[in-house]
Design a protein that fits this description.
Elements (H helix, E strand, L loop, with lengths): L2 H30 L11 E2 L10 E2 L14 E7 L5 H16 L7 E7 L7 H6 L4 E5 L1 H6 L7 E5 L5 E5 L5 H16 L1
Helix pairs in contact: 2-5
Length: 186
């Protein structure tokens, strides 16, 4: 073999080695070094756990069930004396719900009142179809604190899935819910 042929063979062997090692090195870099700039979901993913028994109660403290069990639930956990931020959350949840015209049968809205104050009747007229229940202390303490003044997404089996900051962006909530409804449809 000539020196030129040996150099070509070594170069070929080096290229084969690099072609085999490059995917491994790239995967390690992606796994350990590269961090995506944005998360796919807008809400905070929560550990999937079922809501505790007795989560919703009536004014006398007796447990009540949601009217439409088996549906995904946009749960607003807020005080009965609904301030401007609370009203904005209720509005945002209604807008998200309205965006799912074809999937309204799979999604419901619930306002879990965190205190003994009865919500204003005029406010409830603005939100036709909104189910209003009282949140038990068990439910309030079940969610990570602070739990009041937040929106939660509950799956059809009654498990917590996502928690939103006090002032979420409805368009991003729509993306989250649509992804989850699409996944659960498959």
């Amino acid at each position: 073999m000539t020196m030129e042929q040996k150099t070509k063979n070594r170069l070929f062997l080096l290229l084969v080695f690099a072609a085999c090692a490059l995917p491994i090195v790239a995967s390690l870099l992606v796994y350990y070094v590269w961090q995506p700039a944005r998360l796919m979901n807008h809400g905070e993913l929560m550990e999937v756990k079922p809501l505790p028994a007795g989560s919703f109660v009536d004014s006398k403290g007796k447990e009540v069930k949601l009217q439409a069990e088996g549906k995904w639930t946009l749960l607003v956990l807020d005080a009965g004396a609904c301030n401007a931020e609370c009203q904005q959350r209720l509005y945002d949840v209604r807008q998200v719900w309205l965006a799912f015209e074809l999937n309204k049968d799979r999604l419901q809205r619930v306002w879990a009142v965190s205190d003994a104050v009865t919500p204003d009747a005029a406010l409830l007229k603005e939100h036709v179809g909104l189910e209003v229940v009282r949140a038990s202390d068990t439910l309030i303490n079940f969610f990570p604190q602070p739990s009041v003044g937040r929106i939660y997404l509950i799956d059809a089996q009654g498990n917590q899935v996502l928690r939103y900051l006090p002032n979420p962006q409805p368009k991003r909530m729509i993306k989250d819910v649509s992804r989850l409804l699409l996944i659960k449809k498959m």
